[in-house]
Amino acid sequence: MAKESDFCDMDLDALKAALVASPDNVPLLLLTATAYQEKFELEESAKLIAKAMELDPDNAQGHVGLGMALGMAEAGAAIVVVGRDGEKNRLAVGEIEATGAAAHAVVADITSEADCAAMVA
């Protein structure tokens, strides 16, 4: 199974060419942003993430959050996945646990004060 850190092996030129053909493909934007991050080209990465967020805020935000969680898990952190969609949470926990890290899912809406209070109770 490919890990997030395997993106550095991707051909950035091929990803950029694919973006020319599909400039509004959110997963491709995020994948290319990750490849830029692996090469420490953070300004280019940020531009692509911003475009992905503009096109599909919920989908892009989930991918960015999962990428961050996987990076933290690889560094040894235990992860709590919080979101409104229990199935998406479960899938994210599965990906995180596949790295060997501990992970737990909580269904909550972080814009709800009551959900946030219940989440940490």
Describe it.
The chain has a domain at 1-55. Helix content is 62%, strand content 8%. The protein contains six helices and two strands, in the order ααααβαβα. It has helices at residues 12-21, 26-38, 42-55, 57-74, 86-97, 113-120, and strands spanning 79-83, 103-107. Strands 1-2 form a two-stranded parallel ribbon. Helix 5 (86-97) links the parallel strand 1 and strand 2 (103-107). Helix 1 packs antiparallel against helix 2.
User: Strand-and-helix sequence, N→C?
Assistant: HHHHEHEH
Q: Provide the spatial order of strands within the biggest beta sheet.
A: 1-2
| Count of helical regions | 6
Rg from C-alpha positions? 16 Å
The helix content, as a percent range, equals 55-70%
What characterizes the major β-sheet? 2 strands, parallel
Task: Give the number of DSSP strands.
Answer: 2
Give the CA-CA distance, first to last residue.
Answer: 36 Å
Low-confidence stretches: 1-8
The backbone outline, from C-alpha atoms, is: globular
Mean pLDDT: 82
Q: Find the structural class using helix and strand composition.
A: mainly alpha
Question: What is the strand content?
Answer: 5-15%
